[in-house]
Give the backbone structure.
Amino acid sequence: MCIRSVEGLRRASALAAFAAAWMGVAAPAGAQGYPSRFDFGATATPEEVAAVAIAIPPDGKGLPPGRGTYEQGKETYANACAACHGDDLMGVTGLRDMPRGAQLRLVGGRGTLTQQRPIVTVESYWPYATTLFDYVRRAMPFQSPGILSVDEIYAVCAYILTEANIIDKTTALDAETLPKVQMPNREGFIHDPRPEIFK
Amino acid sequence: MTASPDKSLTQVRADAIARALQRIGEPITEAQARSLAARADCDCKEGMFALAATRRQMFGGTGLAAAVGMAAMLPGRAAAKAPPGAVEYDVPADPTREQGRMTGVDGGYGSRSQFETEVRWVQPTRTSSWVPMQNGWGMITPSGLHYERHHAGIPNIDPAKHRLIIHGMVDRPIKYSVADLKRFPTVSRLYFMECSGTTGAELMRANAPTVQRTHGLVSTSEWTGVPLSTLLKQTGLKPEAAWVLAEGADAAVMTRSVPLDKCLSDALIVFAQNGEAIRPEQGYPMRLFLPGWEGNISIKWLRRLEVSDKPFMTREETSKYTDLITKTGKARIFTFTMDAKSVITFPSGDMRLPGPGFYEITGLAWSGRGKIARVEISTDGGKSWALAALQEPVLPICQTRFRFPWIWEGQPAVIQSRATDETGYAQPTHQQLIAERGALEAPGMFYHMNAIQSWGIAADGSVKNVHPLG
């Protein structure tokens, strides 16, 4: 199977492969064969789904109620983030068992993506602000994920995006405003052209 | 057998056995061990546990001393000496002159020889570990040496409490327990898995000294699980369904969006590796497995699949695992497939050939697009190439062992391998990759680096990682 691009894949071909896989399960003589449906598992209730469905897509669907400002975020950042990402958001070097400082840097680096040593940060690289909320909520702070409230997460996003010169200090972030934030590198991604033809 | 050991001897043996068993996983309680040792009439008494004294020692007048000596030998000192995955046993001067240890002393789960010391190399941030490919054989990676890459450590998950929830654009959201999953029809497949960052640090210069540290983020196992298509058939799919978000139960709550087409073709929900439950490092009790695709998208500790119409653009598919093309400043997104690749594992970096003569060059080749069609070897730095023999079976999306007979004349040489897969795609050179994508001095960012690896052999037989760009 040679996949040239995500868009290039057609549902029809996958469904055909799916059907072929099923038909390919040969039933021994006298066996009852495989059913196409099974009654294992239980219906997941809306509450059970809601408890784990935390992913936020670019349109902001699923963002929780809440609100945060730059000023609130400044304090939360100092308490929960600065130890690794730095007071100046430039990343702290030499931390034990942590990536190098440059990889912890959150701001700067615009215009460096064609350089041999690009500076890749939330400011210069990340295409969606919703990803910042999603990731902070699911995995940060690194040593104790899950401790920040929804308001604190919105606030930290506001602080980082303001320090990155993407929004201004007066912009409060919530479920309405966050998906509307235009990230500088929004158009910086292309689909996979591989396999490459090497000359 | 009529002799009845005195109480102190029984006690010593019971303690020794209990301690020995404790070290190897505590398969029986101390009370059970005592009871076993006290059963003087049991034929199996002395032989049941290898570390117990022999029958002759027991009843030949020196029994007590022998037993005490044996007990002193058991824990502590031995534990410190044994390499990881091994248990330290006494080494007899002549193994033909005394009974070996009996079945069961390992508690029912074996260990490797105490003389074998290969271990994964742990990268300094302690987020990945690399396979000792230089001393590997065949195509299977032992489960305990399979490479690791974690984003927030290895969670310890009780399978009885774990659930996989499938929801979103489905007709009926369903939750499965591990037991539910195992009731479905299963398939087993041999597949390689590779981290998309493997060898990225080798793009611009020879970076790491050994094949373990250049290429060791790739492994092959037999994986057993349930086709994801089977599970999606149970939930049903809404007409607009096009992507599936996979999410792990680790502290990173690691998340990637997967095109539905892949989920309906060869995607598996895997719960077994090499015939037993997958290791905690590999996602116990269940993981997603997407054959031929970069390792990170095969979400471990899988807890949730959300069917949607669009990708979620998670951190791990935007800020990470995207391929910045410095030629244009644009980054490739959703770069799933692992291109064809190979590497010579013997001879390789940091080894030293003892002298001129015959050597069998060997290594591994693999492709995310199918079977390996051929592997060529050069012993003159790429000027000329000759076909290597491929070890059967050559399986799709699986590592393939290649071999090539070689007489080393004692002159400096550069040896290389070049894999071509069944689609006709051949491994590029460093120069070709750089020409296509641009130079990049950020090792952690250059994904899908599959250039031809060179090992330089000096006149003294020493082998070094060398780079075509100097």
Observations:
- The CA atoms of residues 199 and 214 of chain B lie 5 Å apart.
